[in-house]
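User: Design a sequence. Structure:
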């Protein structure tokens, strides 16, 4: 099991860790700041720095397929692998991570503005999208752009807290996603709260305030099925803070 430092602090850029196992499909550490792909958010990239100065480029981060809660740091093709027990410094590509954090939080704002269940989504580097269960076009591109930038301009604080599985069961309205349910079984579920705007389960990384997102534009609203509208976003300005 990997200690997931990014759950408590999305801004931690590096950590010291010990190699648990290493193979071409992934390097396991006892602790990490690397977020593994999940919930529509891509896995982190970055590097592992060994004591002798050797650097291993990490091109993706994924959850281990065997269900043991491990995390695989995928090395660049042909990279030399560290020995189990070796001490490394794990460093994420911070600029990319921060862009993903900004977009992920913005997608939470978008879901608070659209009256429809979320049927899919993707957090991209500089862009993102959410799909909604909307049989008719009830949203307008320009109106949504203005509403999103208003929420961003409020500079509302974003925080994290945990509730129990039973507490989530008693509040089913917190779950917006129709096709994917929050992970259960550990006894608790992580919530992301945007003060006065949104509250929903999420395991991803987020910025600390909405003003950090920067300018956003809705570029396109597409019909992707009888009951599916896709809303696409891009950054237009750098973050204000």
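Assistant: Done.
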């Amino acid at each position: 099991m990997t200690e997931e430092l990014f759950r408590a602090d999305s801004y931690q850029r590096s950590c010291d860790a010990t190699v648990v196992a290493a193979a071409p499909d992934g390097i396991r550490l006892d602790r990490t700041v690397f977020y593994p792909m999940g919930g529509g958010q891509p896995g982190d990239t970055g590097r592992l720095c060994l004591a002798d100065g050797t650097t291993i480029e990490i091109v993706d981060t994924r959850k281990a397929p065997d269900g043991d809660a491990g995390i695989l740091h995928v090395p660049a093709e042909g990279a030399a692998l560290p020995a189990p027990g070796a001490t490394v410094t794990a460093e994420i590509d911070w600029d990319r991570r921060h862009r993903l954090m900004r977009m992920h939080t913005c997608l939470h704002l978008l879901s608070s503005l659209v009256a429809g269940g979320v049927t899919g989504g993707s957090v991209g580097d500089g862009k993102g999208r959410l799909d909604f269960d909307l049989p008719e076009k009830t949203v307008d591109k320009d109106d949504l752009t203005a509403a999103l930038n208003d929420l961003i301009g409020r500079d509302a604080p974003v925080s994290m807290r945990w509730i129990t599985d039973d507490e989530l069961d008693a509040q089913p309205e917190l779950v917006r996603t129709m096709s994917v349910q929050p992970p259960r079984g550990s006894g608790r579920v992580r919530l992301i709260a945007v003060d006065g705007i949104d509250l929903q389960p999420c395991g991803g990384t987020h910025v600390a305030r909405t003003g950090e997102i920067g300018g956003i534009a809705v570029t396109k609203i597409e019909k992707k099925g009888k009951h599916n509208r896709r809303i696409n976003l891009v950054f237009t300005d750098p973050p204000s803070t």
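The chain has two domains: 3-92, 97-235. Helices lie at 94-113, 141-153, 165-169.
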